[in-house]
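Reposting from the mailing list since nobody answered there.

I have sequence plus structure tokens for a pair of proteins and want to know whether others read the tokens the same way I do. The first protein:
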Amino acid sequence: MRIARFTTGDDPRFGIVTGDLDEHGEPDPDSAVVALAGDPLYLGVEPLDEQVRLADVRLLAPVLPRSKVVGIGRNYAAHAAEMGNDVPSEPLMFLKPNTSVVGPGDPIFYPRQTSELHYEGELAVVIGRICRDVPAERAGDVIFGYTVGNDVTARDLQRGDVQFTRAKGFDSFCPLGPWIETELSTADLRVQTFRNGDLVQDGSTADLIFDVPALVAHVSSVMTLLPGDVILTGTPEGVGPMEVGDEVDVVISGIGALTNRVARRD
């Protein structure tokens, strides 16, 4: 089931997206959105007798994290190597503020403080209920679903600051979308990033050092997770720069495509 957050010009609503996806993660032209009674994270999935063509809505970030986005660094061996780092012995966590979240089609703003803005396409996990100390074998009980993320990073600031807060925390540095897929195996999902149509990242979640259940267990052993919190699972090798005007597409098999364009920050 694909759960989207959308608007037709009025207040944001939630809905179920119907139709199939093509090989590029794009929806069928006849796809529709069946409206839900409210936020499914709190009210459950309650469809209404109301639907609208997907082509007639604007998709928004499918979730606005209630408290936090938890990033995981160096979770693909090849990416750790390309950055000149060792593979961590346990998940390397950092936080992105919920104000960094934007949706599909929203601009990624290039801050004046950096000259090295990078894309990082990755699988994002959406938490469905309050939880702490979740065993890995019970992780599925607390996961609402999965979406596509771009862990935008100011690479020069990351090197200079050592810790990641500023480099990954600017407004617009966490595009999410286009919707949440609630029924999905994450054992072997293809994760691709395209910059202006050129393939720049091509990996698989089969290569995660710490898989999704292990990440949920580790993060929840440190902090309480709330409904709508997001865990970014790490990025494959191939990270690189974005420039103003670039269009970046992150495509994950079984979920869909997230597209954003880089814009100058005034």
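The second protein, same order (residues first, tokens after):
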Amino acid sequence: MTRNVRELFDLTGKTALVTGGSRGLGLQIAQALGEAGARIMISSRKAETLEQATAQLQDAGIDARWIAANCAVEEETRRLADETLERMGAIDILVNNAGATWGAPAEEHPMAAWDKVMNLNVRGYFVLSQQVANGYMIPNNTGRIINVASIAGLNGNPPDMKTLAYNTSKTAVIGFTRTLAAEWGRYGITVNAICPGFFHTKMADGLIAQLGEEKMTAAAPLGRLGDDEDLKGLAVLYASDAGKHITGQWLAVDGGVSVVLGAA
């Protein structure tokens, strides 16, 4: 029988691992998947913030746990996947969200900062995806991988935004998403990307203050920044059977900013 919409979006019985899940966009996505019925494992570097976020999720009735790991370090990233599988028994949904940025003119950009951004935003996504796929998704011929990219990966920047490494990394994430989707479709794994615009997060708030929130909202056709609900629907679509025939795609959640900027 054809399932109804509620059944298609239901994640009951699924397990999700969300990196960078202790705050901001990662926590919003973890909350959404948990509200749809999934068991949640969140990860970031700091145990204190993970404990707070897990308590918040549990207070909302979500089965949530945490593991501290630095996804810029290969050994810790592989440990995160293995420990999650040991404790949860499955990773049906992987959300690669942990990220870093750095502001500097291109001609002065420190190499160490470039490597820091790339190791977390690109290499970390690959290492964790490979480990989770080999450890669970490929043997079980199923899986959902959601990569958090950015509208910064779709266009260049205004001259006063000097975030070359970040933008380059997010462009790479979109290419990674599309290429991996083509390769792993034969295993029943979908791979898609979310491209958020500007949200109030710890990473973005400095830039929002620098550029001016009023100016930034004026540049968006919807006239506002993203809020604590705006990624939820897309995350659940990608993660659930409602999106089972969607792979290799990216979608901007940005109030229309990328339309104005002319993203392809």
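Reply #1 (J.P.):
I read it the same way you do. The first helix runs from residue 5 to 9.
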